[in-house]
């Protein structure tokens, strides 16, 4: 075999030498021979030699994977999404110099290194290097200046930076038409000016979104510009100078901090088809816009006020999509919009629109597919004429308004119904769920939670063969969960909490193997947890709390390969905790529940009737401030509420995060396998009859925040290994048979003595000192001066149950705080002695500020700490589009570690400008709602 390639080379060489005698030296086939050489030498530098198996010297390169030829010349190479794992220099030396190459696409190909000078083929017109890890200053792109025919250059989603004003500007081919620099690490004020300083007369498409660019944008010299995207940067000064703007069709300046009047700036852009200015700080009435050709307009997430102005009717000839969500508009859908016959998507959510549904106007919009009026003040009963509209919509979202009366039975009366999403949650709907909803045969999401619906769940819903989400929680539904749901193989989410449902979990649900969130808490359900539960491979959240389930906890729960949240509190489960249920620890991949809006109500333990660690509620389309409606049905009064969107916490090595089996009749021992869950935040086994000792392995639960083993029959000592539980903010071991010294646990916390009371001889802090009989030297005595600190980081961690990246930041914050607190205690005492009772306590002179002054002695640490906190807070952002991606967070952490900080303005001064202490900042961001508010 080995001789074959050389044989082939020999033959081809011979062939070419013979032919070049008679033909021109530039014979296409001869160049092919040279190209084989270059392609093979590229393959040979790849770390994985098997990545391109058919790139072999004895084959025609035009048959190589990813290679296209024209007239016997390699003209195009596409190796996108192949993990090449090479530096840019290898690409440059072997591929970019291919004489006839016109197009090279290496998107997401694991290319790193920086761009260096190289010799580029003159025929190259298109180069796509997006989604790699190419780094270095953006000025290195000038190396592409030698590609004199380059028209398309895409280097988006790399890590190019802008270290400052580099003389000369960016030197690229003067015929460049497309330049995409989105999602790099470009920051600073003059980036766009620098990029364009050598002209842009041919440029049609410029994208720099997802960087941190500020300052001005002037594209007035780019006379052919059709597409400009500067979204998601730090622009705040003036909107771009667009010049004559005769070609611009697409303008996106969203997610910046623009404000003021921009109508002059864009008034000349009469060709504009798409305008997105969402997520800025524009305020006041909608200004005049160039509407003539506009097909898509988004003014979302600004501070616009007033009614929808008639001037928008100027766009009605062309407008297909209008998004005014997240402003302060009031009034109603104005009649003139009826003439927008092409309108397909009308999104008016999160404003103050009110009145009855303006059916006359809506019915005129014959092409309407998406109608989103959620989070407004619309009221009244649903008009019968809505049925003329609903069947032809894809999405009807009326959630979080003040609608009342019955849900119309004929929402899908047309046989050609297309309705996929029906959101009516958080209104005042009464009456029964119409059985005829089963006519909505295309329905994927049905969300009727937070209403006053009564009667039973119609069994006809079992014929909705595409249904994925069935959410009916907080109504007054009775009867059984219809067994017909077994025909809905597509079902993923089944949320029925807070109703009056009876009967058992229907066995047919075992066929719904896509189920990932089953929540049936606070009903009157009974029966056993079925053994088939183990067949639900996607099941991530199972909540059965506060029902009348009984029997053993099936070992098969351990077969649920995705289970991260198990809440079984307050039922009649008996038997032992099966060790098998922890079988998946360290192997769980959470792919199923990302991006779901939730609220977690922490049980503050004040109320004896309120059981369990806390309540996780699905909250899509429901106003946070309506949470008090839950308290009418829940014995818990809550002091802490956490909200957010679920996001993956781990890739493939996860474990359960929440395990609450309290208030049952469980007996036997705590299996040592319980210690195998590295991501467990909350463990509550309280109020059972569990006996034996606490296994040492509980000390392996390094992420544990809250541990409640109270009111059992546990005996023996508290394992010294539990001193490794440094994240612990709450513990309750009271009412057991424990004895011996209490080890030091927790990150900042001093636990109340009450949490250890009623045992058989516990001693040591916070209980009285151990006597000579039980002191064993390992008991850690703490100074009495230490007051219980507010468990800020602990609370944040709670709020972030799903968010690993943030937890990472907080662990660092926590470590640092703990170190300081130790130091501080000593300093604080000295301070108190020196100054006595000074009595000058002002609002600012709190403990925190007092110690803050001392901590500022180490400004570098202070900045680093606050930078971590900033990252954490960014992760807590409500608006998904503002939240950093995992990659961005990792990049931020890397920057902090490298000492360069999050942004250049991050000095102590600017941090203090905000006037917040770190504590307030975190509290604000998690919206820790004081009890009084509800
Ligand atoms: C590029 O990636 C390769 C393989 O992943 C690695 O060995 C090399 O150090 C990286 N080079 C740079 C400059 O990061
Ligand atoms: C480059 O690749 C990205 C990602 O695969 C793709 O979205 C884009 O259309 C490509 N651009 C060009 C100019 O080929
Ligand atoms: C926009 O409105 C919000 C809430 O009404 C307010 O907090 C914010 O300061 C306003 N921003 C501007 C730029 O007016
Ligand atoms: C449910 O699954 C069982 C076995 O897995 C199968 O025999 C039965 O036909 C399925 N039922 C439905 C309604 O799909
Ligand atoms: C659990 O309770 C059931 C009745 O609900 C009873 O039959 C069974 O014996 C109990 N098992 C144990 C281990 O106590
Ligand atoms: C909790 O609510 C109950 C009534 O449901 C009330 O009596 C009690 O005082 C409340 N507890 C606290 C701590 O506010």
TrEMBL record:
Enzyme class per UniProt: transferase
Residues covered by the Brassinosteroid receptor BRI1 island domain: 586-651
Catalytic reaction annotation: L-seryl-[protein] + ATP = O-phospho-L-seryl-[protein] + ADP + H(+); L-threonyl-[protein] + ATP = O-phospho-L-threonyl-[protein] + ADP + H(+)
Membrane-crossing residue ranges in chain numbering: 792-814
InterPro entries: BRI1_island_dom, Leu-rich_rpt, Leu-rich_rpt_typical-subtyp, LRR_dom_sf, LRR_N_plant-typ, Plant_RL_S/T_kinase
Membrane topology according to the record: Single-pass type I membrane protein
Principal cellular location given in the protein's record: membrane
EC number: 2.7.11.1
Alphabetical keyword list: ATP-binding, Cell membrane, Glycoprotein, Kinase, Leucine-rich repeat, Membrane, Nucleotide-binding, Receptor, Repeat, Serine/threonine-protein kinase, Signal, Transferase, Transmembrane, Transmembrane helix
Gene3D superfamilies: 3.30.1490.310, Ribonuclease Inhibitor (3.80.10.10)
Signal peptide (residue range): 1-20
PANTHER family: LEUCINE RICH REPEAT FAMILY PROTEIN, EXPRESSED, PROTEIN BRASSINOSTEROID INSENSITIVE 1
Record protein name field: non-specific serine/threonine protein kinase
Source species of the chain: Brassica napus (Rape)
Taxonomic path: Eukaryota, Viridiplantae, Streptophyta, Embryophyta, Tracheophyta
